[in-house]
């Protein structure tokens, strides 16, 4: 067989030809050799092969049973990265830390080897002699070749690369003309790598999700190129402490309590821990984490927040929150939460969810920010809703409605990949 | 001035003649000298007088701003209890423990004295020689006299008395005829005190809410007498750990995680702590607390639960929960929560909310269980919804819709504002 | 090679001929196929082979560097159990749960096979037709044969079998004559299995440690047989919550604070969790756990304590404690602790410590309860000291002094096993 | 009667002429209007008057019953501060926050007024035109006048003023000559205020304790002036999280476990919270807090530590610690602690303890750092011992031995204050 990942019979969590009639879908990961990406790849292979239930996936629940989306066995994975550790080796090392089940990694070994063959060198700002415009075209070409190679109706690009320091503002972020000129200047390097990746997604006509807090698609001149062309969603996966906060904060509001302070400390090791030990890199993360809290509770909540790199904890992130609220007649209410989980195990299923849901959006011709996907992000694009229950309601409504439209739309043409590539031009 | 509680100018949280046009409303508390009741009385007086903001009240938030309900200054409090500690003394002792602010208790002293004059002896099963039917009529007469004395358009009875042991089942609970006969037999004592109180509410045509897990209105023959006559809501106030659980559990479900165990321990002292130290009394409480969890997560969640009497903690209840869930590829997620608050300070504002909302229900002629009030209870009557966000949505929808109906309905017939004002002199 | 476990070169944690001159030592485990025992066996093999450092072992620290004790490579393991799961299979299943490192279990596989060959059927009360006296002799013979087979200078019996329900008191527990008679009556079954095991240790002249809260050696007629014959220590390994309590309680006392309540909840699954789910079995455990607290803080501390069986947690025990103390001018101090660890991983190194230290005691002819070993137990025999720091000081002092005596004593005769068996008669 | 505080009959915690034969003792507080100082003053008055038991005092326990020390009713309080809030007002405001019992503050009101009369303006670096030498002499004169006014045998100066930023190093800190010259130069301001206060203690011949992490007495040229003249002890009161850490860390060591990380977060409001919100001021505090941990566990423990200013928590400090250790065969042990208490209520009794114990030291002619008082400090002077249990043992031994010497020494001359003033020159 010539395809990369189609090793499985149809399973519960697998394809359902009757409903999703647009064939296999590409998931192109920026940071494809990282912890989240490797976990997503192992998971897609395991779920696609019916070796594990789809626990942890938002799209696998009963609420979305009737929404037409590609099955887990219909996802084909490729991506960019700037390191060269082979995917199977990375997966094994994640098994050695106790995060991934060793048997599962062994069982999907062949699939990982095939996926590894789909990975291409990413873009490093300042490295090499290509102009940033050339870099965008190189990355886009990788994605288009991947699409053609596997005859994919849709490709969804998800950025799960290392969190970048926030770039200083510059004119090229606001003036389309200036940006266009800078992109073709081999001496200029005005955009961060995350923006180059976002532009490559746009150029290749792929749907796009930003799982990191990096600037990428939030740069106005980048964002303008995306509007009207692709569906996109972001930003910064909502997985642990922030998820919990957007679940809990609305409770205080509904009960008329006044939250006075919400302090938090995050401990983690692993690659992300090391990256965030850099005070520059952590800044964007911290800003992203507190935004929702202030939106939900007001700006006068005192909310000190820390992320500490604690190498011996590995990928297990432990977060302690201390909430102090005022209740009836000034009475004090105190809530402490301690959340502890393998961070990448929380993130990976959401990456698969995004691939499925953005395929659906793409299949119905949706473009622009998809506010209903805000439930997946700390900093939801196109939406001010942070309350998790409200976001869940919005997601279900959107999925039902969009699914209905997709079901009644014509199936993808057999030469769809060709057509789409044309459309992406 | 000769009225009981009208000591205040209209405040934000106070009356709004333009919208609520049915005058003052009675709040009749079963267990009126208890910790929750005393706190509710102090709070109603303080809020009515504009001495404290309505923090902790569900009905005071912006979502219900336009719903016509009696102001806090329009609540007149009376009730039954079986002890005789004067309300002002009880309030002072709650201030001494650090729960109630001492200045506030001092400031509302006169109001407490007036309220104390509205309290009447309750019913103790087995004590005295009255038949249970006579007891029902005596209690109902107390409520009717209170209503007439203050020319109240509506009275809401709220049971905040001590949690009873669950009674053994008996034929009189199912057969109306048998019950009717037993009620008139001075030698028989078939109903628990909570049912006598519920029947008195029904007899007096008052709305009724059950803030305890006691059997009262859940006895089929009692419940049948309420249907079609009064609006009612229950059961067992959802204030601390259980509130938190019904906020958190839906998060796991929405994210496709599988909760395996949810263990809990509650520590508290005070009157409620002492009552629940009795293994018989605690049984109904524990059953009530776990019901929602199983409804939300399924019956195979392992959920050991304890309530310990720890006298030195007084009314501060501290609850520790340990949740263990399975996520992506079998990965473990652990969440611990520690909640700590003065229990009565959480309960009292909800009692006031119930008085306001059941007045509204009564004003629109609603009878039977009001499912939309399920948000206030561990064990919601007339509803299977336990998820707090969904309950909040349902409450807001019901309040908006019922408020609309109330606003367009004629003002109370039997007690025109003229008559009522005269009577209040 | 004819010996069971001597697979390793001398290591740091290994033998040191210059100091310990009495050769290899037997560790005979009651409950030898259980979780603690299997972990101890894997650990002894791994440490003996220099495959793992002696982390978690009390005797491996710098404070005891100069005390002559058998090296980990000088321990030979055997034991009794009533199940038949082969030790290598049990170890593998403990690796599958993530508790034991899989590579380590694989690396010591041959040693486990050899150890498995040293295991013999234990005693089950009421099963079979042997009198209890015959059972004692059978078990003692197993131990003596083990000693001869391996030419061991000393054998230490450690009871790590399932916690028993506490037996009802009876005359045979107090009257030596009555017990002797009952032991020879095939129809009588007066002693619990833990006592039969203790008597077998005594009969075989082995040192003995009781790691469980079972009645065994605390029965007066059993204990009298041990006095003057063997060194022994107990009872109920102090590993998690109780360890923490005896570390923390003295802090409050030293600072003049008055602890008012100390509430605790333990969650665990695994074999021990299932055993303790039995309300009978858990009673002895709970009593044992609270004894130290009351000894340290007085009897008026309110100390509710729970152990819940939560299967999905496996052998990871999580304990939450909530301490409330009164400080200066009646001020409140609150401390919460959450302890989480693989229970057997805490217990197993102490079992090895006890083997080493009781060998030392035996080598110096010590008999009776050894109070200085109280640091290992929730309920220390021969001592009222529960404060962990004081116990540690006492252990160090005893080990230094006894070590000195052992070093100056004559080495064990080459035919020592013969001599000792004589002594055991 | 003409004395300031002798309002009480002898109580248990009061004077015992038979043992302490040197009369009343002065406690001179630097920062005398602060939270800790005010609490200490209220406490000394309450304990001296027998209005409260000596809960929270290290010296009141049974272990020190026979050590001759001044009774709480023999302490006379004075001090320096740079604010002017009257002590009774400060005490009332601490009662309003719920920290001090309001009745107690009312009961000792007269004593607070008398104490307030003993307070003098402190030294503010850079303010005024006096040289630093003049400032030292002014402050010393205040202390000497206080001693004479009350005919005190001993005065103990305790620095409980605001934590200072750490000063940059300079030559005057090392060269006695240079310092002497700078002190007399009105244009120079080389020493921080804490050092001026320490020099005033030395000049006045008073014993001295440093309850803050400020540089004061640690400056070599300052310290050299103290040696051989006065007994002194420091530094930075060990009251909450750090106390707990030095209790817990030795447990891990004794059990052979290897602590890998120990992360901490402190939340507090109040005056100290505001001070420590300054990143400069907090630096010395953080350094001081982590020193003990590294001493106990080695330098490779990863120990991120935060102090956050959370105003709504007031003086209640809440500290969360997360400890991760490696046990047997590499197994993970996790311990979390949450400590919550009114910080000043922990500190104040220790200030009284230091007054009593340094009086005793002074009474036996002790000079230099008193290592046995290290138990009270995060950063013990003259000692490397941080383990709390070992420190407690050392304190008890020193107190017993010094007490014995004091008891056998001649009682203080009636004109002792005169003599001492001479000695202080
Ligand atoms: N729960 C979660 O794990 C979670 C939640 C929200 C956001 N995130 C974000 O997801 C991202 C990935 O996390 P991770 O734990 O996998 O981190 P990781 O360090 O394991 O992986 C990041 C990968 O990105 C690659 N990379 C770096 N620069 C690149 C570039 N210019 N182009 C292509 N690849 C590049 C790295 O080589 C690495 O393989 C982080 O930004 C993190 O903040 C994770
Ligand atoms: N957060 C909360 O406080 C909360 C939440 C849910 C439910 N509840 C329930 O509210 C109830 C009241 O709690 P509390 O803390 O005020 O307890 P409490 O013990 O302070 O008060 C109970 C009062 O009921 C009175 N009483 C007892 N039997 C009576 C009878 N037959 N008729 C009339 N009065 C009677 C008692 O005399 C007492 O004054 C309890 O059942 C409790 O379980 C409280
Ligand atoms: N941290 C700890 O793990 C810890 C601490 C203190 C005490 N303990 C005690 O150690 C004991 C063992 O714990 P575990 O986790 O290994 O339990 P487990 O259930 O895994 O093992 C107990 C073993 O004892 C065997 N057994 C039962 N009855 C027996 C008999 N009559 N004779 C011989 N063997 C018998 C069982 O077959 C089983 O193999 C328990 O009593 C437990 O309470 C453990
Ligand atoms: N548990 C504890 O409370 C604890 C533990 C260890 C150390 N400490 C230390 O004790 C000190 C006092 O804490 P607090 O809570 O009372 O703080 P606070 O802010 O309430 O009081 C400090 C007082 O010092 C005064 N002051 C400032 N500069 C001065 C100067 N140059 N001379 C004289 N007085 C001066 C201030 O005016 C204020 O009245 C702090 O340094 C704190 O770090 C407290
Ligand atoms: Na947004
Ligand atoms: Na004992």
UniProtKB/TrEMBL annotation, chains A, B, C, D:
Residues 240-344 form the Myo-inositol-1-phosphate synthase GAPDH-like domain. SUPFAM superfamilies: Glyceraldehyde-3-phosphate dehydrogenase-like, C-terminal domain, NAD(P)-binding Rossmann-fold domains. It holds the Pfam family NAD_binding_5. GO terms for biological process: inositol biosynthetic process; phospholipid biosynthetic process. GO terms for molecular function: inositol-3-phosphate synthase activity. InterPro entries: Myo-inos-1-P_Synthase (IPR002587), Myo-inos-1-P_Synthase_GAPDH (IPR013021), NAD(P)-bd_dom_sf (IPR036291). Belongs to the myo-inositol 1-phosphate synthase family. This is Myo-inositol-1-phosphate synthase.
